Amino acid sequence: MSFNTFGKIFRFTTWGESHGSAIGCVVDGCPPNISISEAEIQKDMNMRRPGQSKFTTQRKESDKVNILSGVFNGKSTGTPISLIIYNEDKRSRDYESIKNKFRPGHADFTYLKKYGIRDFRGGGRQSARETASRVAAGAIAKIVLKKILGKKFSVIGAVTQLGLMSCDKLNWNNNEIRKNPFFCPDKKSVKLWEKYLLAVRKSGSSCGAIIELRVTGIPVGLGAPIYSKLDTDIAAALMSINAVKGVNIGAGMNAAFLSGEENSDEMISKSGKLNFKSNNAGGILGGISTGQNIIASFAVKPTSSILNKRKTIDKKGKNTSISVKGRHDPCVGIRAVPIGEAMLSCVLLDHFLMNRAQCG
Amino acid sequence: MSFNTFGKIFRFTTWGESHGSAIGCVVDGCPPNISISEAEIQKDMNMRRPGQSKFTTQRKESDKVNILSGVFNGKSTGTPISLIIYNEDKRSRDYESIKNKFRPGHADFTYLKKYGIRDFRGGGRQSARETASRVAAGAIAKIVLKKILGKKFSVIGAVTQLGLMSCDKLNWNNNEIRKNPFFCPDKKSVKLWEKYLLAVRKSGSSCGAIIELRVTGIPVGLGAPIYSKLDTDIAAALMSINAVKGVNIGAGMNAAFLSGEENSDEMISKSGKLNFKSNNAGGILGGISTGQNIIASFAVKPTSSILNKRKTIDKKGKNTSISVKGRHDPCVGIRAVPIGEAMLSCVLLDHFLMNRAQCG
Amino acid sequence: MSFNTFGKIFRFTTWGESHGSAIGCVVDGCPPNISISEAEIQKDMNMRRPGQSKFTTQRKESDKVNILSGVFNGKSTGTPISLIIYNEDKRSRDYESIKNKFRPGHADFTYLKKYGIRDFRGGGRQSARETASRVAAGAIAKIVLKKILGKKFSVIGAVTQLGLMSCDKLNWNNNEIRKNPFFCPDKKSVKLWEKYLLAVRKSGSSCGAIIELRVTGIPVGLGAPIYSKLDTDIAAALMSINAVKGVNIGAGMNAAFLSGEENSDEMISKSGKLNFKSNNAGGILGGISTGQNIIASFAVKPTSSILNKRKTIDKKGKNTSISVKGRHDPCVGIRAVPIGEAMLSCVLLDHFLMNRAQCG
Amino acid sequence: MSFNTFGKIFRFTTWGESHGSAIGCVVDGCPPNISISEAEIQKDMNMRRPGQSKFTTQRKESDKVNILSGVFNGKSTGTPISLIIYNEDKRSRDYESIKNKFRPGHADFTYLKKYGIRDFRGGGRQSARETASRVAAGAIAKIVLKKILGKKFSVIGAVTQLGLMSCDKLNWNNNEIRKNPFFCPDKKSVKLWEKYLLAVRKSGSSCGAIIELRVTGIPVGLGAPIYSKLDTDIAAALMSINAVKGVNIGAGMNAAFLSGEENSDEMISKSGKLNFKSNNAGGILGGISTGQNIIASFAVKPTSSILNKRKTIDKKGKNTSISVKGRHDPCVGIRAVPIGEAMLSCVLLDHFLMNRAQCG
Fold it and tell me: What is the DSSP letter of A111?
């Protein structure tokens, strides 16, 4: 049982609050003798960190990651890797005005009721700032997977729906994703999305998003029945991300609308190599990877901290209203892309190690 | 780490294959001194068991549950409750013809590749027969929750989408759900659904479904950040059910399309009592219950065992085709209703106990 | 967290009470494709089962083990192996006379205080009858270890101290151990022990024992710092056996009396092969196996159920006395030998799989 | 599964190497709203820290603990408490001379064989420096237990055997323990021990120790059958401490030599209050606390780093010898006292929370 730990063999435990002195995580179970550097981890950190475009919060955090243990002469030793990220741009006074009110859509109310105490500064532990630690752990998972699985392994996420704006997934181009501030995979949608999001922000509102993750190079056989299915653990991993309300594997919720023929991916042998005619299963059957690409997607609800006034109550139970100023992303879903990649990578490495344990 | 165990404090471990002598589960961590009887558990078993209408498999199983341990003089003793259900109607010869072929959409291929061996009779361990054990464990969870939370606690599931047929959720009536063979909550849809499903079956195909679960009487404060969020564990619980491909909490995937104002549920105090104006959060904020109803839904893919011929390969990698005869549900989603209720009940009891552990 | 489950990757969950209809266990995480038969498991069961000599309880149990799942065509499938052993010789009336009294040295008092209810028949869940399940799980662990490690692997336990009677460990002979009713490794001690134990029984008393376990064929590298040390898990495994009060690894408690020179096992290379000059470490340094034999021992307290009258209280808190008739072993430590072997085997297999997971 | 995490509900994860920049731990599952300060934790840190007398290593570490998260306005918030201790006095050059040799009795050999890499500086992760983190976690456990159980709760450890020198346990005086550099509970033994240990050191050797732990104020009912017995978890906790080779509960290994009458602690009611006539069980029956004092003891082997020359091999397998200079404790057992207290406190709090979960 573990409130703040994720994973079974490759495990990480995160700690820290939005406006504490630092946040961090401890990664346990990493295989030994893998080259790991702060610079390599930092690349992923930089994808998530705030203040990089006008579409994300203006909080300035360099999100510089420091390795405190577990790496010796540039290589993992098999012992816990402790990572720390100092908080730099804490403006706790921003929160004084709302410390006695519950922001609708936030966990202010539930944390206080559960624990009888809460660190209200920037949401404390409930803040998405915690996800920086996940990205760091995920970066290590990616490094290990690349070492073990080779070049065919890759994981990439993209925003495929920005509020009411969709994109054309047929135009999906991995090379475009990092080139625009939305992680949009369809170059043609970027301009429209920019206009749209500026309008959303100007209106004092916010919007949600759908993120799709695609993984190549996963061998057949990862996953385990019944309660450690690969898709079970992916669902948990993605649903644990702040503001996520839905998770799909392959066809996902849409599988309900398909016929048996459409849905079941036919198998064909071509010159001795197995091909699937489709991938509605998202690369997972019976909880075990098929060798196809792993496909998962998840929905992030619109940012709850908005300028537009909302009805709420205060700590004493009195009716009041709230308009959240501060420095907030108009669409938190955008920055969920590297977090989704990180969580998925951790699940995949964990299952690789689990499979190695039982099946050799 | 546990392949076949679910839960943290209230835990159950299932075992057994579709065509072995029996299946069963061991429930650990059940609070002591709770009245538990085979009869009470059987009620839930009867909701799931096959052969009850023309719309489910004609395999005849009484699914009679036997308590082997952990209950003394009609009360739980706090020690493990072992439950066994004997398999009665095993026609393993049905599977001889397909033992060397991989059924598309099934786990035949992945099990064999992973383990190098598989019990092909009725899908062996990968069969949905395993879910009978979950329903038994879930029945115990419900009994305990009712004892602890009192009459205000209830959990009910319904099919809200049957393939291409929806129902009007505004007509949701708990009393109708058990009265029709589809667990449909809208009386007006039943006739149409019946016609539709007969047509689907006649065509040799199958269809998917969406199941919605609603829980009342859950107090505020259950759940735990960050990786044991209530919704994280619900997502894992539901995704672990056979053939499930998507999970939503509250607004779910649709949250992506809402504005910040629409999505964040406003809070209003009325004569000293808190009311939420909506429940897009599905009763969970920051992974912790708000005291509202818990709402979750999940999609079940269409039955993969269909009469219509599908391309596939055999164990030797040769191209072939398959037409699955046997005795299969045209929509496995229907029988997923009691399974969803069971899994959700287990998660809720588990979190109740976890919260009691940390917060007293 | 798991009250009735042991192990991390190779895990077993036991259930059942002394006088219920059956006891059993579910073994999860067993590698696939290993030949496993009831006959092979039964050999170990027969070492532990009661009624085999005049020095053990006269309760007649055949302890016949049945495999209910997880084995297909004689081979493990990688799915849970469910084992059941029916209770045959239940004389619950024996316990009627003591159901309202707490037997000193037994868990009668603590179970009732903890749970508010207890199955008093034969000690219910607290009975050593539970250990039959462990022996079954351990038999599977041994089979797997033999398959993986080959013939050099062996595990054997012996009673080295029977109450006040010691034996000469220099005369340790593996072939003698199974030939006498005490699992005594020193042929010369058997006669004396027989006399001694008969006298103990005649006097209406009981005695304790020390059991030593020796394992060959374990490679260097099993175990894991810091809280999953091999010796940590062995200590937990052995201390979890009923009536065990002390555990030693290698020199054990006596290590306190050695000098630094005596204690630290010197290493010498001989024709390219490493030799240790001694084995005070019991084959474990820093929680990791050295490649030497694993040596562990544990003390079992004297049987608490004795004929001689003891002071105690009843359920209402009134002073009374008790003389336990029933059918009890004069020294429960004797039958702890196969249980110790079983638990140690499970730990070693578990660590083998853990090491394979992290280190490949 | 967790290599570097201890506990089930109250859990801590430690990280860090002897000569890295820092060590630390993350404590998860701490109940909320408990007053926790660095100053209070520091008191326990100061009991363990090196350089305090001529009988411990002269490495100078202030062992100043810093709280990085989980405490807000002086109170625990229920979220992870991250603790960091910076390493100050690292003289890694001390280890250059021995980096290619395996010190007998140390984990140098096993770590390198297991992981293929090791941080040789000061033993890296295998160093007892890791135990500083345990003491910090244990200090928090003590604070919580005092808050929950009140003043009757206390935990104290003492050295009762220093190499060949025993003390008279009848003279045990809690107030003396902290007044001498040996944590000796018997004032009369201090002088003799001082002489003895100086002689041991002068001779270039080292000695072992036995530590006894005594806990008051634990209510009846903590612990859980079968594999989470209170004594099982205590055995694991104490055996996980560096250099520990044996663990006793109550009479421990000596239970083997007692008769059934001597061993089973009689129960007597006196003016409505239960009294046990003895405490051979160490306050635990059937894995569950009886309400008596909890008594556990453990043996620490003599320091393996000694000046006297020992035979060993180097990394290439060649025979050589080693004489360890550096700054080492002549008896590491002395500093194990606060570590034992810490580990035992963590187990007890964990079981308190577990019991609260299941039994309310």
Answer: H
| Residues whose CB falls within 8 Å of the CB of residue C194, separated by 6 or more in sequence, listed in order | C181, C182
* Mean per-residue pLDDT pooled into runs of 10, chain C (360 residues): 94 96 98 98 91 76 95 98 92 74 95 95 92 98 98 98 97 96 97 96 96 98 95 98 98 98 96 95 98 98 94 95 84 96 98 97
Please indicate whether, in this complex, the C-beta atoms of A72 and D17 are within 8 angstroms of each other. Answer: yes
Provide the sign of the torsion angle of the four alpha carbons A20, A26, A27, A32, taken in this order: positive
Instruction: Select from B123, B66, B63, B67 the least CA-distant residue to B87.
Output: B63
Coil, strand or helix: which one is A288? Answer: strand
Round to whole Å and give the CA distance between C173 and C183. Answer: 11
Residue A77 Cα, gap to closest chain D Cα (Å): 6
- Total residue count of chain C as it appears in this document: 360
Q: Which residues of C touch D257 (CB under 8 A)?
A: 161, 163-164, 208
Beta-bridge partners for D15: D24
Give the span between the Cα atoms of D316 and D111, in whole angstroms. 15
CB contact under 8 A, D236 and C235: yes
Average pLDDT over residues B141-160: 98
Residue A48, both tokens? 């998530």
Task: Pick the closest to residue D93 from D119, D117, D121, D51 (CA basis).
Answer: D121
d(CA B350, CA C320): 41
Helix (H, G, I), strand (E, B) or coil at B324: coil
Distance (Å) from the alpha carbon of B114 to chain C's nearest alpha carbon: 9
Which of B30, B79, B360 is opposite residue D356, by nearest beta carbon?
A: B360
pLDDT at D93: 65
Q: What is the mean pLDDT of residues D240-248?
A: 98
User: Of the candidates C224, C281, C310, which has its C-beta nearest D261's C-beta?
Assistant: C310
Pairing of strands A209-216, B267-270: unpaired
- Smallest CA–CA distance, residue D345 to chain B, in Å, is 16
> For the residues of A240-264, what is the DSSP string, one character each?
TSTTEEEEEETTGGGGGGSBHHHHS
- β-bridge partners, C5: C13
The radius of gyration computed from the CA coordinates of chain B, to the nearest angstrom, equals: 21
Q: Between D54 and B166, whose confidence is greater?
A: B166
Which residue would you say has higher pLDDT here, B201 or D58?
A: B201
**Higher confidence at residue B333 or residue B324?**
B333
For the entire predicted model, the pTM comes to: 0.97
Interface test with chain A among C1, C10, C358, by most A beta carbons within 10 Å: C358
- For residue B175, count CB atoms less than 10 angstroms from its CB and return exposed for 0-12, middle for 13-18, buried for 19 or more: exposed
Domain CATH code at residue A106: 3.60.150.10
Q: Which residues contact D234 (CB under 8 A, 6 or more apart)?
A: C239, D247, D249, D294, D296, D344, D347
d(CA D214, CA A311) in angstroms, rounded, equals 56
Instruction: Please state, in angstroms and rounded to a whole number, the distance separating the CA atoms of residues B39 and C42.
Output: 35
Supply B323's token pair: 């037409």
Domain that holds residue B63: 5-359
Contacts of C19 (CB under 8 A, 6+ apart): C87, C90, C92, C95, C119, C121, C122, C124
CA-closest candidate to residue B65, choices B154, B150, B144, B138: B138
- Chain A interface disruption, residue of D3, D65, D67, D69, most A CBs within 10 A: D69
Nearest chain D Cα distance for residue C232, angstroms: 5
Low-confidence ranges of chain A (pLDDT < 70): 92-94, 327
Check: CB of residue A165 under 8 Å from CB of residue A188.
no
Q: Which chains touch C (3 or more CB pairs under 8 A)?
A: A, B, D
Structural domain count, chain C:
1
User: Which two tokens mark B218?
Assistant: 């859950």
CB atoms within 10 A of CB A326: 15
Q: What is the ipTM of this complex?
A: 0.97
Count of B–D CB contacts within 8 Å?
41
